[in-house]
Amino acid sequence: MTDISNSDVPPPVGAAPRRQTRATVVRWGGHAVQVGGGAPVVVQSMTNTDTADAAATAAQVRALAQAGSELVRITVNTPEAARAVPAIRAQLDRMNVSVPLVGDFHYNGHKLLGQFPECAQTLSKYRINPGNMGGGKKRDDNFAQMIEVACRHDKPIRIGVNWGSLDHELLARMMDDNARRAQPWEAQAVMRDALVISAISNARRAEELGLNPNAIVLSCKVSHVQDLITVYRDLSARCDYPLHLGLTEAGMGSKGIVASTAALAVLLQQGIGDTIRISLTPEPGGDRRREVVVAQEILQTMGLRAFTPMVVACPGCGRTSSTVFQELANDIQAYLREQMPLWKTRYPGVENMNVAVMGCVVNGPGESRHADIGISLPGTGEVPSAPVYIDGERTITLKGDNIAVEFQAIVENYVQRRYGRSAHASQS
């Protein structure tokens, strides 16, 4: 018979200790974002506007930054785009948006950085993909030119290797070497190994060219969950550079969210990853900020960071034929997120608050007691009343047609009382 007695030590809870890495700092003016070196995992995103349209790009950068993106990447692919970068930065500065801008370069980045020095100086970081910079000596020269500009302007870089644009010469050599093995690897395994070797070898080449080792972040992007997990486990074991996590093309809607969460949650739980981006394909006209929200929710639900108060809500069942609890949960969640740009400065610590909006008496009172503030709405056939729990105690029962408005007011009063300056003063 299996022994089911308790051990002397409870099982551990939480992610593994973070992997030790160098610290890379990305700056604009007096604002600095640290990637790696024990800093919290950084959330970043990327615009999908035409960078040459400075007004539209600045507006989207601002929206992404206000949603919580701590770094924002913009495409720099043409002379017009490179010429627009200083104007984008100037507009952001006028709007008091200090988020650092990362320039995404492919194919002609060495030319653009050389031809537009103001662009090179204005960007806070460069993203370089060595797999699409040509071949042979041409590739080496182009890469060296970009590193020289980064050194001259004291800019960090991300060497971003992508399996869709992997160095063909490196991959061909490794495939040939693999064919001579007594037991050759599968082609997919060779490709994964090539990604890791390409990233690390280019980082070392950048150091040889004079780049500060603390100015390098690495990424190895693929589209499949299991490949990404395997590649990053291998990469993290072979170097101490900070790592940028993300599927290169996660997909649309729930598929993209699920794939990104499945891959990144495994790696983050193992202490791997220093900055993340969720590469969601937006629906036509969709909100680009969704990828920021998903990134934040992955980190917050895993207990790695806190960005906004979390709402617990039941999924609904036959006991909850009314949609009142669904509407209230949605309204409260939207309300809390909308308040955060103001609340994060006015009410420190409010991002750790938990709110419960429950739909019936089965789990409603219990979940509400466990939350900082919670409400248990009446299910089908239950007494039409909604008890409210604050810090585990039942405090008031709401009734009538204005439950949503009254509960929102209770939440706001609770935030002011618990997280306001007077509350912090009384605790000190």
From TrEMBL:
Q: Which domain of life is it from?
A: Bacteria
Q: What is its EC number?
A: 1.17.7.3
Q: How is the cofactor bound?
A: Binds 1 [4Fe-4S] cluster.
Give the protein's cofactors: [4Fe-4S] cluster
GO molecular function terms listed in the Swiss-Prot or TrEMBL record: 4 iron, 4 sulfur cluster binding; 4-hydroxy-3-methylbut-2-en-1-yl diphosphate synthase activity (ferredoxin); 4-hydroxy-3-methylbut-2-enyl-diphosphate synthase activity (flavodoxin); iron ion binding
Gene3D superfamilies to which the protein is assigned, alphabetical: Dihydropteroate synthase-like, Sulfite Reductase Hemoprotein, domain 1
UniProt catalytic activity: (2E)-4-hydroxy-3-methylbut-2-enyl diphosphate + oxidized [flavodoxin] + H2O + 2 H(+) = 2-C-methyl-D-erythritol 2,4-cyclic diphosphate + reduced [flavodoxin]
What are the residue boundaries of the IspG TIM-barrel domain, all occurrences included? 32-295
Annotated IspG C-terminal domain ranges read: 311-412
Q: What's the stated role of this polypeptide?
A: Converts 2C-methyl-D-erythritol 2,4-cyclodiphosphate (ME-2,4cPP) into 1-hydroxy-2-methyl-2-(E)-butenyl 4-diphosphate.
- Provide the protein name: 4-hydroxy-3-methylbut-2-en-1-yl diphosphate synthase (flavodoxin)
What's the source species for this entry? Allopusillimonas soli
Ranked from the top, the taxonomy reads: Bacteria, Pseudomonadati, Pseudomonadota, Betaproteobacteria, Burkholderiales
Gene behind this chain? ispG
